[in-house]
Amino acid sequence: MNMKICFLSKDYSYNGGGERMLCNLANELSRFCNVIIVSFDFSEKKSIYKLNSELGFIDAKIQRRRINFFTKFDYVKYIKTHSDFFDSFDFIIGVGIICNLVLSYCSSKLKAKTVGWEHFCYDGTPFYQKVLRKILFKKLSQVVILTNRDLEKYKKINRNTNVIYNFTNMEFRKSPNFQNKQFLFVGRLSKQKGFSDLCKIIRKFCKKNYDWNFRIIGNGEYKTDFEKFIESENLENRINWSLASKDIQTEMENSSCLLMTSKFEGLPMVLIEAGVCALPAISYATPTGPSDIISNSKSGFIVSLHNQKYFVECMLQFVHDFELQQKLSDGAKEESEKFCKQNILCQWKEILN
User: Fold this and answer.
1) Mean pLDDT along residues 158-172
2) Which residues on adjacent β-strands are paired with residue 162?
3) What is the pTM (predicted TM-score) of this model?
C-alpha cells in the first residue's frame, strides 16, 4: 500500500485511551504507508506512547486561548493555512469528535479522502457536538466507530459507517497475581470516569474487607479531591496511587481484578488490555463498551450504572472465592481473542483501499 496518511489529534500528549490507540494504529500502518500525525494543541508534556521512527510528527503549537467552542476554529484555520500540505495525502483521519468535526467542516476543500474515527459512544458528547455531528459528518468519506450498538445511529448521518474494534499490542505473558490481593483502577480522575462513585465504592469496600488494597493510576480534575479523600478516610496504607504508568501490562499482571466506574465509554482500551492479561474486571454497564468486552459472570461482572451496593458485593464475592478468580481469569483471556490485531488491521486496510 503506497499511500500517504495523516492523522489529526487534538493533543497527542493527553495520554488517554484515544492517544494510545492512535499510537498503536499509526505504528502498524507506518510499516507499509507514509504516516504523519498532526497534533493541534500546544503542550509542554511528553506523551508516554512511543511512535516508530518511520512516523512523521508535527506539533502545530496552536496556543491555547480560553477554551470554548470558538477555539476549534483555530484548527480550521491551521488546515486552511496549510492546504498544500494536507492536499498531499490520500487519507486524512480525524481522531475523536473535535478533530472529526473540524475535518468534516474542511472536507469539501480537501483533495484527500476524509475518515472520522470516533472514540466515544454516540450519546457521550455535549449537545452542541451532537448537533454539529448531524450537520457535518455527512461530508466525511467514511466514519469508523467502535461498537455495534451505535451503528444504526451513525448510519443515519453517514451511510459509509463501519465498526472496527480497538486492538492492543499486548500479548499474554503470565496470569494475574491473585496473591497480591489488589484491585486496579486505570483512568482519569474525572466525572466521566465516575470519580465520585469510585471513592464511595472504595470506602464501602474497605469497611467490609481489611486484606485487599487498591492500585490507582490516573490524573485529572479531581486530583486534589482524591488526595483529600485518601487522607480523610485514613487510606494511605490501602491505596497505592500514581498519576501515570509507563508499563500498564506489568501493573495488570501484578493486580488481581480491574475496576471501571465510567458513566460512558466508547470501547475502553483498559478492558481490552485487561482481557489480554487474563485480568478479570468489574465494570459499570455503560451504554456501549463493557458489554462488547466482558461476558457477565464469565470474564467479569457488569453492574448497572451507579449501583454501588452491588458493585461492592461483586468485589466481596470475588475476593472470597479463589475458584471464581481462576474461572473469570480464563474467561477474560478467551474473550480477548476477538480483538486480535491482525483481523482488525485487515479491516483498516479494506477502508484505506
Assistant:
1) 92
2) 144
3) 0.78
